[in-house]
What does this fold into?
Amino acid sequence: MSLIPYPRTRHPFDLFGGLSQIHRELDRIFDFGPRGATAPSALDLLEGAWSPAVDVFDEKEAVRVKAELPGLKPAEIEVSVQGNTLRIQGERTRDFDEKRENYHRVERLYGQFHRAISLPSPVDASAVKASYKDGLLEVLLPKKPEAKARRIEVNDT
Amino acid sequence: MNLQRNELPAELERTFVVPPANIRESKDEVIVELEMPGVDRSRLEVSVDGDELTVTGRRNHEKTEGVPVWREIRDEDFRRTFTIGDHVNRAAISAAFRDGVLTLRLGKADDVKPRRVEVQFA
It folds into this structure.
């Protein structure tokens, strides 16, 4: 019987999970190297996961979100708004088989992606517009009238 | 060589994002795919200098109003250099840009293409 519980959150044979966690922590602390999906690190490739890079801008009338999603068709991207959260998800399928015959190098990441973004202000979900051009997704989320900055007159009493 | 940092040419001081690439080979071509989302098509450059093939993609920096609350997309332009050998026919390089992916097709020189040799029966 052990007195001190041994935390085992990972699979015991997951050799790279811990390493990549340290790697990510170092990246985050020192702000080194690649961020987002622009240049995957070797460890990201081992994990085979990708997470598109996202920008969020708080404009006067709307919230503008950009995401880097190269090599997709607009129909393969799913954008949804629920409450204060914008979700961008989909899947990039590889156009070659698993054997990768005749491939010298595969650095692009494939598979499912999913990003949930907390919006800085309430938006009108029925008026959200999304467009895709040259690998860049842009979502424009108009703010709810009550969220827009309003000038309040100061009365002289 | 003792170069001070401020003596470096401006081009060398700039940093670039290295776009991820897939490289595959067919019978007649080497095909390179590079992810360069948000690049301005009109300022996409592919150049060959000796053994070096360089791809530069400049981002379309639109003026954005508002406050950036979260930023992951990098500002730097894309650049990547590949070394190509004599087996690439310099005159047969083509490039196409679609959905943020640049596809380069490098034609192989005739002497490295697989060739069918007729067997003569005496």
Notes: The longest helix of chain B spans residues 10-13. Chain B touches chain A through 33 residues (CB under 8 Å).
